Amino acid sequence: MRRFLFLLVLALAGCGVPAGYDVYVAAEDWNPSAPAMRDRAETFRQVSRAVGNAARAECARQPGGRNCDFVILVDLDPFESPNAFQTLDKSGRPLIIFTQKMIKSARNGDEMAFVMGHEAAHHILGHIARQLEYQKEAARIFGEEARAQGAGPEEIDLARELGAEVGRRSYTKQFELEADRMGTVITYAAGYDPLVGMAYFGRIPDPGDRFFASHPPNARRVEAVLETVTEMGLIQ
Ligand SMILES: [Zn+2]
Question: Ligand 1 centroid to 177 CA: how many Å?
């Protein structure tokens, strides 16, 4: 919605919408004109190539027969808040999308690689589909429990909604830690240092150990990375 409003404002201001604006562009084709972004873009293109290859290889190694043909994109809207996420296109191809503010907020290639590896891991581990299953299952259990206690249709609906939310929140944290672990493996395979990359956690707000936080505490995530590099024999 915000995006639509922004475009509307641009149109009303009479500047029109510049061609190709407000779309995603492949990392490989991203050539920002702002001098301050040029070096970042070069690093980002290198990271995309290396992490893209490492993610495809890791994906092919895992069971599940998923589409491993990752595409890495940049959101051309310079106002979009710092974010990186994964989704699927209509044909089921995995997309990893970075906003420009996210690319700017990374201090080095290791941090970009770490975030990208983490997003790729969400796809390889099938988190979108698994999360939907958990949500449905928790909604069903909460609904049945409400019914068993004699709740009416509206209360049962509310209980289902609450169940879906509880299911979503509780599994999101588990998925984040799983993605941090596999993301560490991908980052290293791509030639970047996950221990440098994970410094990114130190700069994002710590959700703390609250049940309704969508992410685990940063300390828990750092621990997951350290355990993984220890298992890989990179540190003792
Ligand atoms: Zn995540």
Answer: 8
